[in-house]
Amino acid sequence: MTDAGRQAAVPPGRQPGEGKPGRPRSAPKRHNGLSTREEILQAASRLFGEQGYAKTTTRQIADTVGIKQSTLYYHFADKRALLVSLLSSTVTPALACARWLGERDLDPVVRLCALVSFDLDTLLRDRHNLHVVYHLPELETDDFTPTRAAQTVLRDTYRDFSRAALASLHPPREAAELAEDMDLVFALVEASVSQRQWGGEENRFRYATSALRGSLRLLGVARADIPDVITRAEQALADYRAEVGDPPLRSGHDAG
Amino acid sequence: MTDAGRQAAVPPGRQPGEGKPGRPRSAPKRHNGLSTREEILQAASRLFGEQGYAKTTTRQIADTVGIKQSTLYYHFADKRALLVSLLSSTVTPALACARWLGERDLDPVVRLCALVSFDLDTLLRDRHNLHVVYHLPELETDDFTPTRAAQTVLRDTYRDFSRAALASLHPPREAAELAEDMDLVFALVEASVSQRQWGGEENRFRYATSALRGSLRLLGVARADIPDVITRAEQALADYRAEVGDPPLRSGHDAG
After folding, report:
1. pLDDT, tens digit, 9 for 90 and up, residues A242-256
2. Using a CB-CB distance cutoff of 8 angstroms, which residues of chain A are in contact with residue B52?
3. What is the pLDDT of residues B202-212, one digit of tens each?
4. Secondary structure of residue B255 in the 3-state scheme
5. What are the residue boundaries of the HTH tetR-type domain, all occurrences included (chains A, B) (predicted)?
6. What is the pLDDT of residue B38?
7. How far, in Å, are A73, A116, B1, B58 from residue A214 at the CA level?
8. What is the mean pLDDT of residues A214-227?
């Protein structure tokens, strides 16, 4: 579960200003290839990590990006909204993918494998040093309790998918016994957040591949069947990504 | 590995003043049952987490504990020594246990299982909110590179123990394939650090039990053999703890 510890998220609200002429644009490319919105999130994440959440002001964040405070407020209501948005950036996509997978007629083992693979990709794509942001002490205060809700939903989805997968693989008593340990699948995925500390993209990708196989091994999938399950899961995800227009990470698009 | 992400440690130096009459004592019990040294570590951990490492001064830490700064300096050379000590508090005991286990004539699977069990106990025993301290941005600076060394040694020890266990369980080609994923065992153990966020000691203990079984399942230990391996590992650990005078966590001694 998450040493990794995504402390979750609330569903994101409407993205202000997107596609509206005459307003500050949220998507224009700047010299570093990031939108203003992304630059704000990047700066906020860095400052929260370096000096804490309480000590960081929206003025500092705006100054770091080189924009007016009014531009920052155009994109985010307040400092709290910035933190919530950082946290939701990993959980919301996984929840949407899980919903889509849940509506498809998929083998339960393939369905769980697809969720694990998608979630790992989302976490690897992280450009915001979330392994620091996730551990801000403020997240343990009541003020951020609602941001836990989405992560709890995601964890519960892992449990549901795992139970269905176990039921398709094992007799009932064995499936029930194995189900006791199924939070480990979530833990392996979340643990990928901290892979950054071991240095290098290569290590993170290697970990993700291991975690995918490891998840299937924890379920009790026979070793010989693992490659086929992964292939079918990636096929399902290709369909999903094509539908929502989300590029796969491992093509290298967004890995920086 | 380690989402969990202990960022490691250097071996602890001599503990100043222990058992020396006429000097500040490091072990006397205070009203809260902690030694002065433990109280300093506790306060440092909290302040590092709340306001960052850079902003925290040794004067603040001393004031929080209610001691003179000279008393703090009696126990710790400087602020950096405090952080290093916090980090080493989880890695050093596991390394010592691994060394002991490596010198005993144990089944390689039992040996790895004992290391996992001991390490999980050490992490559960954590009273210092290390899941926050481990993620201080300062740890990524060169100044703390040496503190990574001990954690790398521990990760390598997990790899060595895992390879020996795999070789005892599988034919060579299968063992080599499974060895690619053996950092997952370390990841599962480290992920226990973040269990705290899911609330309650009970959940953390449940996770530790799952992680122990999960580690054996990742190795490919047959389900029916898992209880026996765990029993034998706990027997070995009982011998070790009796020898070094370290109480088992699960007796409830230190779980607060």
Report:
1. 998 876 554 333 333
2. 50-52, 55
3. 777 888 899 99
4. coil
5. 34-94
6. 86
7. 43, 11, 14, 44
8. 95
Cα dihedral across residues B31, B32, B33, B35: positive or negative: negative
Question: Which of A135, A188, A220 comes nearest B187 by C-beta?
Answer: A188
Residue among A129, A134, A159, A158 at smallest CA distance from A144: A134
Is the minimum CB–CB distance between B116 and chain A shorter than 8 Å? no
Angle formed at CA A206 by CA A204 and CA A210, multiple of 5 degrees: 115
What ipTM does this complex have?
Answer: 0.72
Q: In 10 A of CB A103, how many CB atoms?
A: 8
Q: Do B195 and A4 touch (CB under 8 A)?
A: no
Q: How far apart are alpha carbons A186 and A211 in whole angstroms?
A: 10
Chain A CA closest to residue B54: A51
Chain B: nearest CA to A145, how far in angstroms? 11
Chain B residues 123-142 with CB within 8 Å of chain A: 129, 131-132, 134-135, 137, 139-140
Q: Confirm whether A64 is domain-assigned.
A: no
Integer Cα distance of B77 and A132 in angstroms: 27
Which 8-state DSSP code applies to residue B170?
Answer: S
Q: How confident is residue A49, by pLDDT bands cut at 50, 70 and 90?
A: confident
CA distance B108 to B187: 20
As a whole number of angstroms, the distance between CA A136 and CA B132 comes to 7
A202 in reach of chain B (CB within 8 A):
no
Contact A55 B55 (CB under 8 A): yes
- Give me the domain span that covers residue B233: 89-251
The answer to whether the beta carbons of residues B192 and B204 sit under 8 Å apart is yes
**How many angstroms away from the CA of A73 is the closest CA of chain B?**
25
Question: What whole-number distance in Å separates Cα of residue B103 and Cα of residue A201?
Answer: 36
Residues 66-95 of A with CB under 8 A from B: none
Residues of chain B with pLDDT below 70 are 1-33, 127-129, 131-132, 135, 137, 140, 142, 146-147, 195-201, 247-256
* pLDDT value of position A165: 97
C-alpha angle A198-B177-B219 in degrees, rounded to nearest 5: 80
Angle between helices B183-190 and B108-124 (to 10 degrees): 30
At A221, give phi and psi (nearest 5°): -70, 135
> In sequence order, what are the residues at sequence separation of 6 or more whose Cβ sits closer than 8 angstroms to the Cβ of residue A58?
A69, A72, A73, A78, A79, A82
Residue A52 in domain? no
Residue A177 placed within a domain:
yes
The answer to whether the CB atoms of B214 and A181 lie below 8 A apart is: yes
Domains of chain B: total: 1
Interface-testing mutation among A2, A3, A153, with chain B (most B C-beta atoms within 10 A)? A3
pLDDT in tens, A162-217: 999 999 999 999 999 999 999 899 989 988 877 666 556 677 788 889 999 999 99
- Residue B7 in domain: no
